[in-house]
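Board notes (copied after class):
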Amino acid sequence: MAWGPNRLRRLVAGAAWLLAFGLALRSARADTRPFFLYMATDPPGGANSVAAWRVDTSGNLSTIAGSPFSTGGSGLANPAGAELAHRIAVSWSKNRLFAANEKEGSIAVFDVDPLTGVLRPVAGSPFSVQGWQNGSGGTSLAVSNDGQFLYGSTAIGASAPVLSFRVETTGSLTEIGAVWSFPFRINGTAVSSANDRLYLVESSANQLSVLKTGAGGLTPQPPVTLSIGSTPTDVAVNQAGNVLYVGTKNGGISAFRMEGDSITPLVGSPYFSGAANLNGLAPDFYERALVAFGATVPRAAGALIAGDGSLLSAPGSPVTPLIASTGGTLSPDGRLLFLSSAAAQLDAWQVDDAGALIHLPAYPTSVGVSSGFSKIVAFPNKAGSAAPALPTRALLWLFAVLVVLSVWRLAKPTATRHSMVWPRLGR
């Protein structure tokens, strides 16, 4: 059929309109949303607390009323290698925060006000954990996505018992299921989104262990183990539950495909293998990017997550932060990275569309809380928060589909498209 001037004008106008729509959508979603940031400090022999801030779209901090919040316990002088133990965990779905008191062997539980970020201890907090009172440090916590189950491990002499708890509607903790004891301290801990697997990395053993779990807690079945071979220090699992990431001391970031009890390395793994001290992991909840950071040597590396779970190195990575980071977290939309140190400092970076890290000029900054191994977590500000940023590839697919639909509509004879609901473009 002939393409007249009017039809061509409509096609060009339609494409321009769709491009503008896509760019506007990207722009509207690209800015980070305000959120809450929590940092648990663990001063040896001193009172533990959780400092809390509201973070605005530029990464600026404002202290939340009542911060820092006491956990009702204190910390220990942790052994070397315990920098990355997950002493704090947060449930977005249940608006709860959990923090460990290593000296007393207890867990503090707070309700999070989703509009103000204020923490309120639940009745009975902190909750004493039987057998944890003589711990030697390195408590690590992980909470299920639905907020109904909590998992924890701590070092007791030469062993590390792993326990599971049911989180009651009041926030109190009830121990359930079997107790597993490993001969090495657990550092990184992660639970699958389906709450059917618990992943643990043991630095001294250079191995990853997988325990089966669920509503009944840890089941009495032999764990699946995998030798990492490069001092694993942290672990993270994607939302689909089929890709696992392991940070290491000397071997970059290892990634594995999981199918049932089968665990196989992804093509290209380990990533950043030439960069040592990518010990800790900060995954994006929406699986756009992953950041690794150094707990003993200042280092951070950003990567985009490909569709198959593999990592694409971001431009300029790794970078050298000004603090040695013992904690790290991405904002709920994945657009800001915060790092914390044992010297009560925070550093902050913007994460661009390519996963590259861009330092924010006001950081690092001292935050005026007690020094000690710190861990940080982010929590979404639920006061009118927007949808998460769409990945660039998703927007490109959306744009391509809309263009095809526009061309198809404009190419049809007028008589056959009178019933279609579509904007009259180019007029």
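Comment from the instructor: Helices lie at 5-30, 392-411. The chain has two domains: 1-33+392-427, 36-380.
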